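Structure, all two chains, one model.
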Amino acid sequence: MPAIVGGSAETAVRVGQLTRVYGTGPQAVTALAGIDVEFHCGTFTAVMGPSGSGKSTLLQTAAGLDRPTSGQVWIGDQELSRLSETKLTKLRRSRIGFVFQAFNLIGALTVEENIHLPLRLSGARPDPDWLGQVIDRVGLTDRLHHRPAELSGGQQQRVAIARALAMRPEVIFCDEPTGALDTQTAAEVLALLRSVVDQTRQTVIMVTHDPVAASYADRVMVLADGRIVQDMPQPGAERIAEHLALLGRRQLVAQGS
Amino acid sequence: MLGLALRMLRHRIGSAIATLVALACGVMILMSVGLLVESGLRYKPAPQRYAAADIVVANHAITITGKEFDGTTTTTTVPLPEGGTVPADLAAQLRQVPGITIVAVDRSIRAVVPIAATPHTLAHGWSSAALTPYRIVDGRQPNADGEVAVDRRLAEATEDEVRPGYRIPVLVGGAYRTYTVSGVVERAVDGDWPAALFFTDHHAAALNPRPGRADAIGIVLASDADTSAVLAEVRRLSAEAGAKVYTGADRATSAQSEALAARDLLIQVGAAFGGYVVALVVFVVAGTVGLAVRHRRRDLALLRAVAATPGQVRWLLLAEVVQVSLVAVVVGIPAGLFVTGWVHRQLIARGFVPDGFPLSGGVLSAVAVTAVTLLVAVTAALIAAARTVRIRPTEALGEVAVEPPRSSRTRLVIGLVTLGAGVSLTMVTTAARGPAALGAALGMLYVFVLAAALLAPWINRYAARALGPVLRAVWGDSGYLAAANLRANAQGMVTVLTALVLSVGFGGSVWFLQDNLQRQTVEQTRDGLLAQHALLSPAGLPESAVADARAVPGVVAATGIRRTSVITRVMGEPQDVGAQAVDPDSADRTLDLKVTEGRLADLRGATVALSTLQASSQGVKLGDQVAMWLGDGTPVTLRVVALYERGLGFGDVTLNRETVDGHTATNLDDQVLIRTEDGGAALTDLVDRHPGSALIDTAAMNGELAKDLALSAWLNKLLIGVMVGYAALAAANTMVMAALARGRELALLRLVGVTRRQVKRMVHAEQVGLLGTSLLVGGAIAAITLVSVVRTLTGQPVPYVPTAGWISIIGGTALLALATTVLPIGALLRTPPVDGIGVKE
């Protein structure tokens, strides 16, 4: 049984019997081999695992960016598999935020326009108070009219987080948000994500390689070969690293035999 | 969405400019074609010469009924090259019709007044002056054979303005005569037709080269006449006499055939060419927009991931393209107007349209061009957008956004089928003769270019694989990288390959075909003229000129040549074919037509000699009877007595002079070919005896001929040049965009240790690979087409390609590579590699 840690028992995201197979025939690669998991509102989950373990695929399918081969995904009480591409997009832009590793921003638009982009595309009226608050929180007040190319990597990630927050989504999915950042900047970005969970009770699901990054989460889930092999409440960076190392050794033994 | 589109456009200004250039040039060409066609359509000839006539009875065209292969009957109307005639005695019958006040017979006789600044005029009988009308402003009408009334325009063009009582020389019927001016007349209608002379009706009838015939009969109705009843009666009488009835705007057709021919030329050329241009613009714009989208894949994927529905992405692209198209229209239409002005002046200067043919309209063309451009651009954007729908939002997450290889099986199958069709057309072209082969060869050209366009991704891929070892051997490691890049970019460079294959294929075949025809015509004329001298006269030479020439001591032979046209039926379609009429007695000593079968000396009575090309296209053999129409529409059936090869130089049909006697406009010879003994002969007396004539060396005739041919080739070369230029522009656009998008890749290469020199060598190797493949494919298509067409038309197995042609094709391609890839890459290489890499884009 997956552990339930902190927050309310309300479910933000749930996946059931989720499989994702790339390709067909003998070359088919199983990225997800039937995963069941729930993410509760107001929690911060780190999804970890070696390369090829299926963690990014889990994130993409759970976020409605990619369609699963079989199984279901619920965002709140909405099941995604029957939604058209347009409906799925509308759901994404109103209820889900994204932060990727890099190339998060449209180079043609200023920081402010990037943050407003989902609002603009959905035709929603911006709430200036909320936006001001978001921009203030990510510390970009004096950078609003810059182009992404004029910002540092950390600043770009903060713009991406601000954009993700602009629509007040229930869930924010992050794919290696600190992968391209130095330790100090990474810490700032992670603290920001942590505050999103703590202050506004939004849900963050983050894929990462880095045990330190995972130590900001409430719950750490480890994937290998498309299955969940560990699911534990925040164990601390050292134990996470141990688990990962163990996993790596086991894989080596398995390959060697 | 419009604002967002504008922002995205401004950010990717390079690709926006590329699309703009492609569209604006397309708009310019379309506008130019549109305006020329509109001018043609709007041209309404005023009924100048016959303005005062209510009805004109004449014969301007012949209607020929044919049978299609499927058995349906078709009728084709062909203008008569020598102008048709009607029987003069029809006038007497028409005079009996009640309600008619004037019936005037008009005979137009070519005449030269050497004392006038513009000496060429047309002479008529006095009664036809009422048809314009001409009014006497000084003196009186001509009353005797030796009298003439002169158009005031002609009188004013003489040195001491001719007045009644003056005696003036007139060259008419091949001889000088002196006339007394009885009066000066002025026309009541404006127009650009030549100045007129009026003899008495009796004298005009005597001078008429076609006795008993008239060029036209003009009828003026009484004011109280029942028009429809009169018209019905006139039609009945005319039909019995084999003449046609013209009323309203059609009355003009007789006098203004030149302007009407120009009108038809503009409409036909414009319509045919416009179709190709639209197709080409679709292809170029679709390619450019598609490439712009491909380069922005990650942006679009991010938009999709963050918030945009597929519909919104489509709208974004449409909004961008529409904005660019509107700018293109604003730039392209004035440019088109400017270019049309130049083309119009050139067409006038080169005699394709008469002086004073107006360019008219423009608003309609501009509206049509704007609509077509928007339609084309939106279609191109929708095609590109259909592709973006397949962009997965997850691509935004990746380190690099690469397009998955698209190897549509349907495209491959259609491409291979098209290629197969091309190959089978090659068989048809090789087996067929004459126009069938010509049609097949041009069809083959289109089919091959289409096949190359469809198969372009596979051609690029296989060429990259095959060229790998070669590039590696020549350029070493750089060559190895180049081959890998060519393989990887096979899809992106499809537009470049297609555009270059199209340029080289079309340019290489159609352009060089003109050179081949020109060269062959000049060669055939040079080799075929045994006579050393020719007596020429624009007013025509009487039969006595030949006799005079023969009488000069030292002259071996003299042949009068009359140039005319006949109408023959080629594959069911009537066609105007150039012909010459000769005197068979002397022709084989002054002309060598390279007779392959039969003898030219047998050209007696109802006989004809045909070029081998003409004989094969009509499917006739030596001894067969062949039906044709003479230049004035008279049907004849002639027996083929000789076949000859030099049809380009001398015309495809050679007739006996007696056959055309009375059936040409002047009924005079155009030239007399004179062959003299080695010592030469005193020919200068001949010139004195035939005023208005000139004696030239036959070698000089070739120069004139070449100039005439170059003139007619000019239009073809202009059209093909525009198409080739536009296709090359498309290739250039694609290459610049592709080159500028490679900053990151080149920076990465340099960071892993590839030197700047090696990068440059790699780019050179890529260009050689890509452009070499295009040249090879395009050149092969051009060569196949050119060989079959040239073999059909001239019998030469190996076509002639001028050295300048080779140089311009290879040099042009090299220049294209230099300007569109080597220079932009050089600029990219000047930035430090660390700036090009990094997470920022």
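The first strand of chain B starts at residue 55 and ends at 58.
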